[in-house]
Amino acid sequence: MALAAFCFAGCNKDNNGDETNPSNEDGLVFVENNVRYIGNGDKEFEPPKGDYVLDASHVYVIRGWVYIADGSSLKIPAGTLLKGKSEDANVKGSSLIIERGAKIYIEGTAEKPVVFTSDKPAGQRKPGDWGGIIICGKAKNNQNEMQIEGGPRSRHGGSDDADNSGVITYCRVEFAGYPFLTDKEINGITLGSVGSGTTFHHIQVSYSNDDSFEWFGGAVNATHLVAWHGWDDDFDTDNGFSGLLQFLLGVRHPKIGDTSLSNGFESDNDADGDDKTPYTTAKFCNVTLVGPALTAGFINEAGAGKYIDAGTLDPNNGSKVGQFQSGVQIRRNSRISLSNAVITGFPVGLIIENDKSVKNTQSEADSRPAVKNTVFGGYTDNAAAALYDNTAAAVPVLGSDKNKTWTDVYSADASATDAGTTSFSHRHVLKTGSNNSPVTASELNLADYAPASGSAAVNASFTVPAGFNASGNGFAGAFKSVAATDNWLAGWTNFDPQNTAY
Questions:
Q1: Can you state the percent helix, strand and coil of the chain, rounding each to 5?
Q2: Global pTM?
Q3: Alpha-carbon span 341 to 462, nearest angstrom
Q4: How many angstroms separate the CA atoms of 324 and 208, rounded?
Q5: Higher pLDDT pick, 113 / 369
Q6: Are 100 and 138 in contact (CB under 8 A)?
Q7: pLDDT number for residue 482
Q8: How far is Cα 325 from Cα 291, in angstroms, rounded to an integer?
Q9: Residue 189: which of 248, 242, 230 has the closest Cα?
Q10: Sequence-separated (6 or more) residues with CB below 8 Å from residue 121
Q11: CA 256 to chain centre
């Protein structure tokens, strides 16, 4: 009888009544009231081991924590729409979780991206309506083995940096992220010890209720990533992540920031700043981070605090609004590097922070944090005040001396010797909005992210480091020009998911 009941729920859900189910969904998808659910309605669900293939002609609703376990795979073809079930009596933070040894194949195209979004109607969606996508692999991290952040059972880590968790290309993840517990939030996309054999490119995370992207260890490389209006950090790297990442765009909403202080980049070696290997040595190149000060509605209060109010976008799920901090925060023994970047519109441009008694320095020679060919502008202070540097004398970076610059770091308003003494017109760095004013939300498009004529972001000497695509030479930022051929956002991105009728 138990077997019969299982088959009724898990097998009688085929296409147009055909029990052969050519899309190979049996055991994973449950049809109830004409809705195709991935998950059986329990908080946690693991389908029988198998290779599952969804059908792009259907819409799916992810319900609960759905584990694709070791030995199984899930293929999601181009054009598939999936919705995360928002909170109800049984389900909180519905998520798709790819465990160690499993494979995910999200194979969208520029014309037909795969979309994960909220199950709420247009106009009612909020950050944190559902959990997100979690991928766990067998690559190295500096804790040997870790449980993934956010609460699920899954563990990640191993010794194979070339491990392959599958393919994610041309994919959007919208209104995800969930605060399962304090400091244990599910991110828009979380990657735990994902190896370099994994393909990861052309991915947009929008309105995540925690970080847009976060890596815990691993060696996966990535290109063409977009973090749009996230709650906490845009790109967060921890626990020995060592991938190469090129062509990244992060854009902040002026009133969405986290109580933990929101940054474009945040990077740690680990939570305690320990001297553990592998170090966090991710390398970023061709990055544009657009902070809240360049968008209408930013509250620019005096002093370090920029407190904000998410208003109608507040998910009311335990997440707390807070303040913005910096474009780039490198701390706790992290050794990431950043090249050919534009960082603009944050309260602070750069923080290399000596918290946890860690003596971070800036030097390629000893593989410490390095920043090259990077244009900072539109900030209140071009680096953190002494408040963030508990041993400021040991930090040979911009530090609390606002006149100090590196030879290979370019500041669009370096003449500002005191915080707030000059106003920043971002035409020095980016294309402007109407009448040379800061861009508004309605004017945010490719032209605003590409270098303007005469921009400091265009420089023939800006060459990319070894290992990166040479098409990033000659400019700072994610886009070479306003030419259509340089617009890698075309076709697959969506900058107004709130009002999209899915």
A1: 10, 30, 60
A2: 0.86
A3: 10
A4: 16
A5: 113
A6: yes
A7: 79
A8: 10
A9: 230
A10: none
A11: 15
Query: Of the ranges 56-65, 171-180, 251-260, which one carries the lowest mean pLDDT score?
Result: 251-260
Sequence-distant (6+) residues with CB within 8 A of 18 are none
54-59, Cβ contacts within 8 angstroms, sequence gap of 24 or more:
54/23, 54/25, 54/29, 54/80, 55/15, 55/22, 55/23, 55/25, 55/80, 56/80, 56/112, 57/15, 58/15, 58/23, 59/83, 59/502
Task: Look over the chain and give the mean of its residue pLDDT values, rounded to a whole number.
Answer: 80
Quote the pLDDT of residue 303: 39
C-beta separation of 72 from 102 below 8 A: yes
* Residue 271 token pair: 């939570």
348-352/337-344 β-pairing: unpaired
d(CA 372, CA 376): 11
**Nearest in space to 291 (alpha carbons), one of 251, 342, 257, 341:** 251
| Nearest-angstrom CA–CA distance, 220 and 192 | 10
Confidence of residue 368 (pLDDT cuts 50, 70, 90): low
Contacts of 453 (CB under 8 A, 6+ apart): none
Distance (Å, rounded) from C-alpha 237 to C-alpha 244? 12
Which contiguous run of DSSP H or E holds residue 5? helix 2-10
Pairwise CA distance, residues 320 & 261, whole Å: 11
Cβ atoms of 119 and 86 within 8 Å: the answer is yes
What's the CATH fold of domain 2-493?
Pectate Lyase C-like (2.160.20)
Q: What does the DSSP 8-state code read for residue 451?
A: P
Q: Residue 299: what pLDDT? A: 60
Both tokens of 487, joined, read 């617009």
Q: Which whole number is the average pLDDT over 288-307?
A: 63
List, in sequence order, the alpha helices (H) in 436-489: 446-449
How far is 215 from 191, CA to CA, in rounded Å? 5
